[in-house]
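Tutorial, part two.
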Amino acid sequence: MVLGRYLLSSLVLSLLGAGLASPTPEDVAELYAPPPARRPQAIYVASNEVAGNAVVAFKINNDGTLSDGSVTATGGKGGNGFDLLTNSSAGPDALASQGSVSVAGRHLLVVNAGSNTVTLFEIDAGDATKLVMVGKPTYTLGDFPVSVAVSERLQQACVANSGVKAGIACFQITSGGLVALESQLSRVFDLQQTTPPSIFQTDISHTVFNDDSTALITTVRGPLSLAHPGLISVYPVLANGRVSTHDVRTSPPRTSLVFGIAPIPGTRDPRTGSSAFVIADASFGAALIRISATTGAVATVAATAIPNQNGTCWAAYSAATRSVFVADAGGNTLVEIDPATGAILRDLATTVGNVGSIDLVAPANGFVYALSFAADPRLTPAVAVYDVTAGRATARLVQNYRPSAAFRLSNNTQGMAVY
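Running the prediction step on this input gives:
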């Protein structure tokens, strides 16, 4: 494509120089059009098995569907939160989080909740299902890590721990592995939790860098009793490129059980330093908010009540549709939201035997992938594949992918990321 543009520009200039022709609008559009986004190559989830965690990779085919890929051990153990309602280990959604697997550039990071570590992998340039561990699993300086944020610009990763020793530790990504940027947990959250944590008490849900890596945003959901609302923590990135150890914590108006959060690219206001996000809220649906990276201020722009929702917890932005998709653990639906107004663009229910979804990604290929679990306990979880290539409000289910026996998922499977 780059060579084609070079040849086109040379041809246009030569024709102009010879006085033979003027460039057409099509020529100019081709010459100055932004390069196409790289075609996504693989989807990743964590097996999160207590006996030994692994990254399970699936190939993204040219038509957007999935096929079997690889299983790569992380060198750590998975874990389960504790479900007070059933008095047993939690699952599905064993970690009650978003972002347990994250990708930036060719780096993939995955938390090992049962061993208090995080593992760094490099993604093979020729085959994205091939992962090579970089260094060794690294202690997260806390208990029960559930979410990892990674910044390609900063070459840093920050891990959220949600057990007794709760808080966020940040690491430099190096060619030899992860290097801790502090000697002890410096961003402490007093959750008054246990290890493993109770998933229906105050707990960390998701940590993520904003679109330009000028702040680290973390959601902390409130208890299921709604005794008090959840909050959003904003740690600014300092001039030296380090994430500050001092944050601003706010409970956004009209929210309660805040969970996954999706940055909306290209929405930064240079005057205020604020940018837009859509946050999933398990108590009613989702909210459109603005967060200032400089002051930490959080403002709720719109609250979207989703009819018949049961636990909307995960959010992902799609550049293909310029909209946000949210997933519900208690309903087999995919809801599309306008990130400018909060309006529901599509509420798609499917009948393929899934009960709900516990994570999702929306890469630039015009598809949405949701990790879904089955009503029949004999069936393993699936990845529901939705086609949105026709634009907004056109989502349709094209595949309910259950991997072959060698790649069997379980109710412990957690997280989702894409390269």
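The helical segments are 2-18, 25-32. In part three we will examine how such features are distributed along the chain.
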